[in-house]
Amino acid sequence: MTLPGSPAGCCAASASCTPSPSPKVVTGHESRLGEWWVLELDHDADTGLRRAELVQALTDPEHGLPLELRGHRDLTPGESLGLILLKSPDNTATLQLRYDRFDYPVKPERAEMFAAIRRRISTVTGEAPLPAMPGCSATG
Question: Which of these, 75, 83, 72, 73, lies nearest to 41 by C-alpha position?
């Protein structure tokens, strides 16, 4: 099985199915000689990653892609840099999600406003955890 479209099309699809707040930058490319698709999801430093919600949308039986969660890990424990591995049931298609944050300094005169925005967003959106997968790797 192959994933339909192109990495760019998959990037657009991932951006359209993620609940707010979504990544600020999504780029995609093929890897392992076209065997894998990789999406790089870059988030603001102060927004939720919403990884579990994205995985749920991508693997939704009715509206998602024919993929299953096969592994995930934080590259730096407790930080925001990590990987999620999704594969088709017959192992012919692989999608790896790489997530990170970029941090731009907040000007002192805007700090109070941004803190209020962060509190409001986290109250509304929350962030669900990914399921525990001991011994599973997101690197294949």
Answer: 83
